[in-house]
Amino acid sequence: MKKYILFIYVILSVLALPACTKNTLYFTPEVTGYIYDSKTHKPLSNQSGDMGFNGRTDSDNAKVNLKSDGNFTIPAVTATYYFIKPDVKQYTNFPPEIF
């Protein structure tokens, strides 16, 4: 009898493990690039501004700082969850434009 209870306990534990795993949904990719002056063709450096995906990037993640070589990175728009998937309808009706 103890073996059966132990077996059931092990099976239930194995089935519960996926609930402890953190999952990430990626709605947009991470974007990297360079910004150059159109007249001098030199990189803009040490500037900051707002860049992101239109309708998808929140204001906290829209801040972008240019490095000394004009390099910038726009972080990916993600949602994390453990067991129940979040509602993704808010991310489906926007065009993938960068502002």
Automatic annotation (TrEMBL):
Signal peptide positions on this chain: 1-21
Sorted UniProt keywords: Signal
Protein name in UniProt: Lipoprotein
